Amino acid sequence: MRPYLEYLYVTMVREERERQAEHQRLVALAYRLRRQHRRTARRSPPGCTTLGTTSEIDIPGSNVGGVMTEFAQVSRWRAAFDRIGQRVPLVLLHGGSARRQWFEPMLKFRRTDYQWWLVDLPGHGESSATGGHYSLADVANNLAEFVREVIQRPSAIFGHSFAGQVALVLTAEYPELVRGLLIGDAPLSVGVQRAHRQANQEMTRYWRVLAASDASIEQFAARLRGLRIRHPATEIGRAHV
Prior knowledge:
alpha/beta, Rossmann fold
């Protein structure tokens, strides 16, 4: 067991350094994109759609149901997604350890002039795993292929948390595929990300040990339900139910 724990420690140290480097790159990308936006704010290019905040949009009280899940094989991964509506594509990307159903409560806010694409990130939900390829650049590359090959036209991108960071990289590396960018609750500060990781180190180690065990699905679920999660700001533990 000790060699395995030492391996986990070395792996976490290496990943921490890699994430710090990625976050520094993200901050630089965010500033670069903001400067570009300021230069073009008063004149949108042809075919470009500008999205406002929720308070700026006229929201109809519509509910959408009966969505059929679709699958598409894109390079190294099989993407699971829901496609709702027509016209301007808006891709909604969930955060880490979540899935596309996270956006279901938002469906009632959908405008009829946007086509919503709810996508499971690689290794999440019903999308296939991409073992060893989960860096921001890896996920951004996979999503770029999805937009290019499946949606087949430039899309507005909304990314929550981890996916917000991915959306920044996607926009910077593939600007021809992105017609609008929205970011929600994405940590762009190395300090904030470090605090979050430190507060959840115990949980992360537990996840890895549990994933490598021979526990059944029922045992796996029971152990996860009993896991305590610490909030990085208050450092107060709460039961994860």
